[in-house]
Amino acid sequence: MNQTLDMEARLREAKLRPTRQRVALAELMFSKGDRHLSAEKLYDEAREAGVAVSLATIYNTLHQFTDNGLLRAISIDSSKTYFDTNTGNHHHFFLEDSEEVVDMPDGYVTVGNLPEPPEGMEISSVDVIVRVRNNRS
Amino acid sequence: MNQTLDMEARLREAKLRPTRQRVALAELMFSKGDRHLSAEKLYDEAREAGVAVSLATIYNTLHQFTDNGLLRAISIDSSKTYFDTNTGNHHHFFLEDSEEVVDMPDGYVTVGNLPEPPEGMEISSVDVIVRVRNNRS
DNA sequence: ATTTGTGCAAATCGTTTGCATCTGA
DNA sequence: TCAGATGCAAACGATTTGCACAAAT
Prior knowledge:
- Two copies of one chain form a homodimer.
- With 137 residues, the first copy, chain A, is α+β, with helices and mostly antiparallel strands.
- The first copy, chain A, has a single domain, classed as Arc Repressor Mutant, subunit A (Orthogonal Bundle), CATH 1.10.10.
- Chain A contains four helices and seven strands, in the order ααβααββββββ.
- In chain A, the strands form two sheets. Chain A has a three-stranded antiparallel beta sheet with strand order 1-3-2.
- In chain A, a hairpin with a 5-residue loop joins strand 2 and strand 3.
- The longest helix of chain A is centred in the middle third of the chain and has 13 residues, at 55-67.
- Chain A starts with a helix and ends with a strand.
- The mean pLDDT of chain A is 92.
- The interface between A and B is large, with 39 and 39 residues.
- Strand 6 of chain A pairs antiparallel with strand 6 of chain B.
- Chain A binds a DNA duplex (25 and 25 nucleotides) through helix 2 and helix 4.
């Protein structure tokens, strides 16, 4: 069974037209387990894989996927946005030295005793980021 | 008692020369309780207050203050960096609608059951960000 | 045939840097 | 005096946008 067909179905479910580029990018992102990609990194992978896409399309695609629930955007480091293929509830380690984002499996981390959000506000999400570094820094 | 003198002392303690601009900026930042400022916002406040500083100096100053423990940098939203005048241990609410950062008093939020950091790594800091929005979005 | 997506290059935004000029100790 | 600070404008890197062209339904 061709993976491409699965991706097409997946895109249709997300109400996105399965165009050449979207299918190719979806395969790159979703065929290798959970990943945390920056636009630039995905762009490089696409070129390596011989997929012709422009950087603008990478950004468009990443945002469309995010809006339609296929990806989750993570802002950890000002300057770069990471897109997480794991949209489930979980938190992250951020490796300061290599600027990599690593999943912390769910089941870990409990956040307790949250104060009330400000008047008229509701919680949209709770992000826990544990910054780590090489212990000989 | 002139506030300026206090700020000068404070800068000296942090091993920074109390220059005209640094003293002025420190006063703007530290005289009004805990604040979360972006470089641009501080720049605007400085101009309003009639303090002549360039944006480059604002950035330099903000980073020097951060390196010397007077401020803490927060990356919440890719794209903008916020500088927190509260360097103590605490977490934040991020108001998605207005893009404001608000302190969550310490004593709240307990993070439990953290997994081991990856091999050879040590925890540098743990950040909890609770994103909130208007409940009629 | 329409609507939606794509590519390119130019534009934007926050931030940084190079360098000549000033200023505080 | 003279290391360290400042201002300006140009450089930057990530991201967005405008618009003509191409592809999907």
